[in-house]
Amino acid sequence: MRRSICALTLSLALLLAVPPVRALAAEGDFSPVRAYEEQFADVSPRDWFYTPVKALYELGLTNGQGRADRFDPDGALTVAEAVTMAARLRSLYETGETETGPAAHSGNSGTWYQPYADYLQEIGSLGDELDSAYDRPATRAEMAHVLALALPGELFEDVNQAAVDAALASGQYMQDVTAGTPFREDILRLYAWGVTGGADERGSFLPEENVSRCEAAAMAARLVYGDLRQRLEWEILPPYSRKGTTMADLVKSDGRFYAAPDPDDMEKIAADVRYMLSRGERTVSLQYEPGVVNSRFVDRLLTSFLAAVREHVEQTYNNVTAPYSPRSGTVVITFSSSLYDDSLTERYREQTMEYALAVHDRMWEEGLITEDMSEYEKARVYFAWICENCRYDIKDNAMSHSGYRVFDEGIAVCDGYTAAYNLLLKLEDISCGTWSTANHIWTVAELDGQAYHIDPTWGDQEYGVEYRFFAMTKTDALARFKESAA
Questions:
Q1: What is the rounded distance in angstroms from the CA atom of residue 206 to the CA atom of residue 196?
Q2: Looking at residue 7, what DSSP letter applies?
């Protein structure tokens, strides 16, 4: 688990921040006291933590763990070791030697680490808050506390303070650094100085996790060397933005999955489809009793599953296949699109979402959608946008059946109109599905607690937006469709 945190999540923040191996310039009275000649067999120049470990070794702040040729980068650092590292760092700054400061307390009775703790307490860099914790692994929050006070604060520039303030105000980053987080102010100080950028792309600090030796080395080295510090380039989105939303995020599932639904049980089949889509998948594996499955049974299943997935027309799936085994009773249903090759499915889904997100955020930015609007009002605005920005494809090109073409070229048939419209509604957390006939499809949405039928295809008229096709009752929708079809 620690290897995962150290080598994976931290690499997001550190790989770009740690420069190639080179001579580092210290920002303070620090001078190397020895040379690093690849003493640690478990530290490779390819490791993200190589430069920090090398720097700390040369400063005399760290040695091998157990054996002289092992650093044990993924091993836990104890509170005692964290305090010792901080004391050596302060002593090096004050006296040019790592042990001079603690040595003045070596006559005190106690454990091996007591002189280091006494030294920090004497200069006011540590209190008694960790007195009962020295023998256990240090948390990342405790490491931050020890390091934030190890050196005089005036040595550091708050290069990331604006980013930290914006992140705290928006709640989009450092979400696990809350008012109740131990040593919160020390953690925030390290962010501001560029000593940490968090453990993932959202700047999470993982304050309760045990700190590893490589993590501690990275933070300590950044205190000494300014060119190892991180500049936070967090994108702070406005509150209304849905950037980062995926197709899977748009589908709500209560977690229920039925492994052997009857082909006529649309409630269970719809639940299975929601479960699949909410997980970002496009395959449903079913298991029936031997002898139940045959070609007719599977045909009925496919018809029902296709109808269920068409409720989520924005997801782009309009085709199903199902290899099956009568002997074992297994049926594997795979969803795809007839509009493009399977290898392009995710690309088109992602691009369609990016287009829709851009429209959504622009509508909010321009004030066309506001917080005080009802769902009905929001749906009407998006209805007008679809009608004004798309035209009907009388040639019925295959891609015109997709929401992608609505956003990309402004041309579609009913499938595309409905897919694009439903996608925009769902980005506003408006619940919606579809109503299909043999040759037409349109939206059914719940607006402010009431169901409405909405047909943006017929709402798009040459003379402008025809609002008769917005917010219809079921009776009106079916009647108007029959009228227009005639």
A1: 12
A2: I
pLDDT tens digits for 123-143? 999 999 999 999 999 999 999
Q: CA–CA separation, 476 vs 486, rounded Å?
A: 15
Which residues, in sequence order, are bridge partners of residue 76? 212
**Integer Cα distance of 28 and 278 in angstroms:** 53
- The 10 Å Cβ neighbour count of residue 370 is 12
Which region holds residue 428: left if phi is over 0, alpha if psi is between -120 and 50, else beta? alpha
How buried is 261 (Cβ within 10 angstroms: 0-12 exposed, 13-18 middle, 19+ buried)?
A: buried
**Cβ-contact 43, 246 below 8 angstroms:** no
pLDDT less than 50: residues of the chain: 1-23, 485-486
SS3 category, 210:
strand
**E-state strands within 297-395:** 319-321, 324-325, 330-336, 391-392
Asked if residue 74 lies in contact with residue 48, where contact means CB atoms within 8 angstroms, the answer is: no
CA distance 313 to 374: 24
Type of residue numbered 413:
V
Comparing C-alpha atoms, which of 61, 131, 54 is closest to residue 91? Answer: 61
Report the run of H or E that residue 457 belongs to, with start and end: helix 456-459
Strand ranges inside 246-377, DSSP E: 283-287, 319-321, 324-325, 330-336
Give the model's pLDDT for residue 366: 97
If you count them, how many residues does the chain have? 486
Q: What is the pLDDT of residues 357-396, one digit of tens each?
A: 999 999 999 999 999 999 999 999 999 999 999 999 999 9
Q: What is the dihedral of CA 233, 218, 196, 126, to 10 degrees?
A: -160
Report which of 51, 55, 41 is spatially closest to residue 21, judged by C-alpha positions: 51
Residue 248 CB neighbour total at 10 angstroms = 15
At which residue do the structure tokens 């003045």 appear?
104
Count of CB atoms situated within 10 Å of the CB of 60? 17
Exposed e or buried b per residue across 179-191, where buried means at least 16 C-beta atoms within 10 angstroms of its C-beta: eebebbebbbbbb
